[in-house]
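BUG-103 | component: ligand-complex export | severity: low

The export step for FE2/S2 (inorganic) cluster jobs runs without errors, but we want the raw record kept on the ticket for reference. Input record follows.
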Amino acid sequence: MGWVAVAGAGELAPLAMQRVVVAGQRLLLCHGQTGYFCIAEDCTHEDYSLAFGCVKGDRIKCSLHGSWFDLANGQPCNEPADCALKTYPTRIEAGQIWVEVVV
Ligand code: FES
C-alpha cells in the first residue's frame, strides 16, 4: 500500500485524534505533544475503540479500563492491557499528513 495522505497538516488540533480507514484498516491519527502518531484504533485488551479515550502528552488512554499506551511504540504503560498496539509511521509533506500502511 505504501504512504497515504490521511489529513491536511494543521487540520488536527493538538491532543486531538481522528479516525481514518486505510486499506480497510481502522486507524487513529493522533496529534501528540511531539508530533503526529498513527495507531490501530482498537485497544489490545478488548476490542474497544481508543477514539473514546484521550490523548495526553505522547500517550493515549483507553476509556474502558484505563490503560495508557505510548503513541510512539504502542506499548501499554499500565495494566490491564499487556500487548502493544500496532503503530504506523507518519510524516508531513506537501501540506498533508501521510501514514505508511503495509498490507
Ligand atoms: S479495553 Fe482498553 S483497557 Fe480494557
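Assignee comment: Attached the raw record above. The chain has one domain: 2-101.
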